[in-house]
Amino acid sequence: MAGLIKREDIDEVRQRTDIKEVVDGYVTLKGAGLGSYKGLCPFHDERSPSFTVRPQVGRYHCFGCGEDGDVISFVQKLDHTTFHEAVEKLAARIGYELRYEDGGSGPNREEIGRRQRLLDAHKIADEFFRAQLLTPGAAEGRNFLYGRGFDRAASEQFGVGYAPQGWDSLLKHLRGRGFTDAELKLTGMFSEGNRGIYDRFRGRLIWPIRDIAGDTIGFGARKLYEDDQGPKYLNTPETALYKKSHVLYGIDLAKRTIAKDRQLVVVEGYTDVMACHLAGVTTAVATCGTAFGTDHIKIARRLLSDDGSGGEVIFTFDGDAAGQKAALRAFEEDQRFVAQTYVAVEPTGADPCDLRQAKGDAAVRDLIGTRRPLFEFAIRATLRRHNLDTVEGRISALRESAPVVAQIRDAGMRPAYARELAGWLGMPVEDVSRAVGAAMKRGTQGGPGQQGGRGGAGQGNGFGSIGQQGGYQQNQQGYQNQGGYPQQGQNPGAPGVAPLPPSAALPAFNRPDPRDPVAAMERQALEVVLQQPSMLEGTTWERFSEARFSTPAYLAIHEAIRATGLASAADPARWVAELLQEVPEPLRPLVSELSVVPLPASTEDAVQRYCRDILARLFELQITRVKADKMGQLQRLDAAANPEEFQRLNRELMELEMQRRSLRADS
After folding, report:
1. Between these two residues, 546 and 366, which has the higher pLDDT value?
2. What are the angstrom distances between the C-alpha of 187 and each of 193, 211, 230, 242, 492?
């Protein structure tokens, strides 16, 4: 099992990776001022680009929805991977070998290279199969697709292909592209006999199975010819790339809509996924030759942000006995979700593909729209197993169905369904309620998840009104769990950092008023410093450190900059990353925003002039404040009684005025 990736390796991957190149794979970016790029945000729908990337500081920020981060968080969010997976993916991208803590291990260069070879082989095979679908020999495959309502555009959208009937068509193709038999054996695309390896898929329609990042990792093949003695559907066997318990067909196409709409629709087959997407249900996925299980749930929860704040999982099953059995099996896994789970079963038993053929796209959407809670389906399925015309049958049915009602998470719905169950059984409500209550007590004693207490992790927004006005909503869970936030000048979670007592509240920072000229001046100064830290060299750093910021949010950032120091200022990306660890958590989105907002200059010389001018104005404002303080002291002073103090204040006022004039002359 891989251990934690070494911190310095994470920093190295972040530093070596060009965030613009990575983002360009998802978003069309255009220049937006010197060193800045802008495009349509991949995290929310918008017509005018507000998603900004600044490679020099290695960060992105959307001024529309508030999403922000570095290249690692971008890959995490867009590919819906863990932090660990994102770092490994980026490391593989630049050919960097990661090291792991505590004796753990991860993929070395050899393993990375082998994995890439497997991915390359699958990509070439994918292209080969798709090209074969257009050949005369694939007429039977095209007829199959047309007969189920899928035209050429639909086939291309889902990458459907065709495996020729020969024994070595794909084998010859991949050998011709430089792959060895030893490599091809590892792909799962070939079987082995006495004479060597041969094509596993022959004379079949082919669906590419892709991972969440969109890489082809396996194939599903449907029988077309009567003389094919194999199973109706034949999938890639388990390989280093393809593990069926971790794979959901269509996840690469559905992931963004799932994350946006907080909905996941689970169907049974490849053509059902196609039918749903073409009908407008673009959150549909399917398992590949296995039941929807624990590992699939982990993927679903990550996509749904399954934290107790909404979301739904909808299972569609055939109306036959096998479909009902699958639904009940899904109900057994229900407690692993925080999202609400539903089931959608067409009355005639038609699956989404058949339904679309018979009644059109609207019927598929209606099927999903008429979903019922999964627990209701489970209750009714339980009752069908008993003879409710007899007393013994009703008692037996109550004993089996009461625990199902007890598992309903919504405390308001539980008694309502107890009453429904009483009606279905023809028994007094009091008797059913007692049985449900007893089942709840047994569930509490026997394990978690019986009383519906599956609330999500605690959340909070320490940024006050910024969360409502500017989109800076941030999860404070980590800080709330610690009982406070780190002492100033120390990194959260670092060894030896004692949290404040639980009673200490997190600071709340209101969004600075952009109409306030002082706040605007302080913001511009922070934009300059965050993006051009080299401007702080020498006496400029001393002046900046001594500056007094009056806006609370900007003051906290200024203090964090002082605590961070200039050790990493030569590398703006690393410097901003260190600063983000120093600043209070609620302010991190604001720091990210300030670090990427385009500066109003189109050349390097213009940037330097602008930065010098802004810092000069900040220092002049500081001098003006100090002069005002000293003028007040002078006015309150009795010159005759304190002549030396009077002279000292006058000298200091004169020196301050000379500094102010010097700043104006320099700028």
Report:
1. 366
2. 16, 15, 20, 9, 44
